[in-house]
From TrEMBL, chain A:
<keyword id="KW-0274">FAD</keyword>
<feature type="domain" description="FAD-binding FR-type">
    <location>
        <begin position="42"/>
        <end position="144"/>
    </location>
</feature>
<dbReference type="InterPro" id="IPR008333">
    <property type="entry name" value="Cbr1-like_FAD-bd_dom"/>
</dbReference>
<keyword id="KW-0001">2Fe-2S</keyword>
<keyword id="KW-0479">Metal-binding</keyword>
<dbReference type="GO" id="GO:0051537">
    <property type="term" value="F:2 iron, 2 sulfur cluster binding"/>
</dbReference>
<dbReference type="InterPro" id="IPR017927">
    <property type="entry name" value="FAD-bd_FR_type"/>
</dbReference>
<dbReference type="GO" id="GO:0016491">
    <property type="term" value="F:oxidoreductase activity"/>
</dbReference>
<dbReference type="Pfam" id="PF00970">
    <property type="entry name" value="FAD_binding_6"/>
</dbReference>
UniProtKB/TrEMBL annotation, chain B:
<dbReference type="GO" id="GO:0016717">
    <property type="term" value="F:oxidoreductase activity, acting on paired donors, with oxidation of a pair of donors resulting in the reduction of molecular oxygen to two molecules of water"/>
</dbReference>
<dbReference type="GO" id="GO:0016020">
    <property type="term" value="C:membrane"/>
</dbReference>
<dbReference type="Pfam" id="PF00487">
    <property type="entry name" value="FA_desaturase"/>
</dbReference>
<feature type="domain" description="Fatty acid desaturase">
    <location>
        <begin position="72"/>
        <end position="340"/>
    </location>
</feature>
<dbReference type="InterPro" id="IPR005804">
    <property type="entry name" value="FA_desaturase_dom"/>
</dbReference>
<dbReference type="InterPro" id="IPR012171">
    <property type="entry name" value="Fatty_acid_desaturase"/>
</dbReference>
<dbReference type="GO" id="GO:0008610">
    <property type="term" value="P:lipid biosynthetic process"/>
</dbReference>
<protein>
    <submittedName>
        <fullName>Acyl-CoA desaturase</fullName>
    </submittedName>
</protein>
Length: 360, 388
């Protein structure tokens, strides 16, 4: 960065920044910018929902215009999206269904899952104008720059979403491409009309499997539908058992490297009484019962735990829960974090509710 | 007031251990009710307060760019004073208590918030959240009882230096943010011996505070005056005034929390093996409210609901008002006194106590009152001080 500027410019710029930061201390200038423009400020880039389009009866596409700090994406990648549901910031990962667009906007397509707090909120309650929080796009489930001569996409349910981003981006450049997509019924196929139109134009061979009638897809059935599957560069996204079976098939054929998979995180975590607590940064792992606080467990195992009142009032013992579930010993409320969440918890009144990783 | 354990007629003598535990359970249930109903409207409330505060601060400072014109000076100083009070009370104090941690917004969180105040958040959270809120009104444990410079309870031993405490209290009010910073550093104790002065942990905390003080002072007394150009001297005066108003206001509100007559104190030994119910009971008797309207509540950071705040320090401040009638009803059912009064009444009450206790106990009374009770008070008090 500094190589493009002369030292005098650097120092002038740094001094200006130092002066502005001193004028806003203990806040940062962004905290005031945010008041004037909600798309600025904050630790993460933000995005404004421009439109919400229904796709099926339980899926919708959100067109989002990212604000400052968004660095763009490659088709097939996903983004972690943060929304406030009932006042609480919740983060979930969604595949980007848009290719990079000239106007910089992105789309995600969300299927409302049963008891899904965030997915239901995004499909049914979010309106145009809402501001959401974004992480940078991530993931290596993408097409190579040199498109493969023969490609196969195997998707099920909302597993179509990352592949849709690729097809929209690379359909023209893909030569011999096959998509085998499973959904319960024809009307449940997300992007059904667009996929059928694409197939009709000859951009792709589309095999729709309707599991309510045809049953679940197996590698054997897939081999019948696409006899040369292991000779194709393959991108697959769907249930874990399907992906595992595919991996075995490709490995057995000696072409494990041709299979690219994207696994959606399982949403159901083991919640129970007690569990293995890993104090990740301290390199300590300990078993804890459901009645012992994380603070006591850490201290008993030599972890330098921050602590205070030890009764849940002072917040001096708060550390991030990286992954797993903990239970509030006062009211039994369970807090669950998945990778990337880092939810701060009060260790003096929380016990393990299943395996959990703490950021200390 | 002497400590509750040494009073002839204890206000809690009528409560059985079972009563106290029932009281605790009722308060736990009240807390759960609020937690279960926390949601989007609460989140919208704190964000609105923060936005209002920032608009007021930016607006006030912008108007002060022309502070050499008198109307601009008055408008700008008023806006900045209100902004600073909101920032310290309804926002800073409450966010640092973790009242808004449940929103999982990293920008409005007890672990990340830094306030417009001389004392760094980290140190304030230790002395306030951890020590004061855990050991509320326990002689020798809760240093908020007189901040180590004053005697605010008969149970605290009198020294001749206490004669000057009305003056110390006034000086503390004027420089309140620095007083708190010194208090959070435990400056009196830590400067007393060479060993303590050289303690690396103390030196690191001192350096952090000095850095914060420098930046705070540079902002209000150098940067913004410089930006005002020809209005520099008047902007400097305006910023000094805003900080003074904020100091006097917060000092008054905070005096009303635990110093007015009717607030009880506790012996050091009384909290050994204390149950949840007993802790609640101590918070109930050790705090006093200020009665008033919505504007008073927001400007005091809802510390006008000091009793409710001490029972539930991590519940969102905007909810104290709705639980106050339930809490007051609980006081009544358990035969306890809910201490409250208007701001002028409570401030006067606290000041009267500061002045009265600048003299030895019962000095102003013509005849030595209740000599037996007096002795009984003096003995354990000495023990408590010696043990401290």
């Amino acid at each position: 960065m500094a190589t493009t500027r002369t030292p005098a410019q650097v120092s002038l710029r740094d001094r200006a920044r130092w002066f502005v930061e001193l004028a806003t201390t203990p806040l940062v200038p962004g905290d005031f910018w945010e008041v004037l423009d909600p798309m600025r400020g904050g630790a993460n880039p933000r995005g404004r929902v421009v439109a919400v389009r229904p796709e099926t009866r339980d899926a919708a596409t959100l067109l989002i215009r990212p604000g400052r700090g968004w660095r763009g994406h490659t088709a097939g990648q996903y983004v972690r999206l943060g929304v406030d549901v009932d006042g609480v910031r919740q983060w979930r990962s969604y595949s980007l269904t848009s290719p990079p667009r000239p106007d910089g906007a992105i789309t995600i397509t969300v299927k409302a899952v049963r008891d899904g707090l965030v997915s239901s909120f995004l499909v049914r309650e979010v309106r145009a104008g809402a501001v959401v929080h974004l992480d940078q796009a991530a993931g290596d489930f993408t097409l190579p720059l040199v498109r493969p001569a023969k490609a196969l996409f195997v998707t099920a349910g909302s597993g179509i979403t990352p592949v849709m981003g690729m097809l929209r981006d690379g359909a023209g450049g893909l030569g011999d491409a096959v998509l085998v997509h499973s959904a319960p019924r024809p009307e449940d196929v997300i992007f059904g009309a667009e996929l059928r139109a694409l197939a009709a134009r000859g951009g792709l061979r589309l095999v729709e499997r309707h599991t309510a009638v045809d049953g679940r897809l197996t590698p054997e059935r897939l081999a019948e539908l696409v006899p040369d599957l292991t000779s194709r560069q393959t991108w697959a996204c769907g249930p874990n058992d399907l992906l595992d079976a595919l991996q075995d098939t490709y490995d057995a054929a000696g072409h494990g490297d041709r299979l690219h998979t994207e696994r959606f995180r399982p949403v159901v975590l083991a919640v129970g009484e007690g569990g293995t607590v890993s104090f990740a940064d301290s390199g300590v792992t300990a078993d804890a019962d459901g009645a012992t606080s994380l603070l006591d467990t850490g201290e008993a195992n030599g972890v330098l735990m921050p602590s205070g009142c030890r009764m849940g009032i002072c917040y001096g013992c708060v550390i991030p829960l990286r992954e797993g579930s903990v239970r509030d010993l006062r009211n039994g409320a369970v807090t669950t974090a998945t990778a990337g969440d880092d939810i701060p918890v009060q260790t003096c009144v929380s016990a393990a509710a299943g395996p959990c990783h703490l950021g200390i | 007031m002497t400590t509750i354990q040494k009073q002839e007629h204890s206000p809690i003598a009528h409560l059985t251990a079972e009563d106290v535990e029932n009281l605790g359970r009722e308060l736990d249930a009240l807390r759960e009710k609020v937690i279960a109903s926390r949601g989007a409207s609460d989140a919208a409330y704190i964000r609105k307060v923060i936005k209002t505060q920032r608009v007021l601060e930016m607006g006030g400072r912008a108007v002060l760019l022309a502070s050499r014109y008198k109307p601009a000076w008055f408008v700008g100083t008023a806006a900045l004073s209100i902004a600073k009070i909101l920032e310290n009370m309804e926002i800073g104090h409450n966010v640092m208590h973790g009242q808004w941690d449940w929103m999982r917004d990293p920008k409005i969180h007890s672990t990340t918030w830094e306030w417009d105040h001389a004392s760094p958040a980290e140190q304030w959270k230790h002395s306030h959240n951890e020590l004061h809120h855990t050991y509320t009104n326990v002689l020798g444990k809760d240093n908020d009882l007189g901040y180590g410079i004053m005697r605010v309870d008969e149970g605290q031993r009198w020294y001749p230096a206490h004669l000057g405490q009305p003056l110390w209290n006034f000086i503390n009010a004027v420089f309140f943010q620095y007083g708190i910073a010194a208090y959070d550093l435990e400056l009196g104790k830590n400067l007393a011996s060479k060993e303590r002065r050289r303690n690396p942990a103390f030196k690191a905390r001192l350096a952090a505070t000095l850095r914060k003080v420098r930046r705070q002072a540079a902002k209000d007394y150098v940067v913004h005056p410089l930006l005002s150009g020809p209005s520099a001297p008047t902007t400097l005066a305006a910023n000094l005034t805003a900080n003074l108003i904020r100091n006097l206001w917060t000092h008054s509100v905070i005096m009303c929390g635990h110093f007015p007559e009717g607030v009880e104190t506790f012996e050091r030994t009384s909290i050994e093996g204390e149950t949840r119910g007993e802790w609640y009971l101590r918070q109930m008797l050790g705090s006093a409210n200020i009665s008033g309207g919505p504007l008073l509540h927001v400007m005091t950071g809802n510390l006008s609901f000091q009793v409710e705040h001490h029972l539930f320090p991590d519940l969102p401040s905007n909810r104290y008002q709705e639980i106050a009638p339930h809490v007051e009803a609980l006081f009544e059912r358990y035969g306890l006194t809910y201490t409250t009064g208007s701001l002028p009444k409570q401030v006067a009450s606290a000041w009267r106590k500061v002045i009265r206790l600048s003299l030895p106990n019962d000095f102003l009374k013509k005849t030595p009152a209740r000599p037996a009770a007096h002795r009984a008070v003096a003995e354990p008090a000495r023990a408590a001080v010696a043990g401290a």
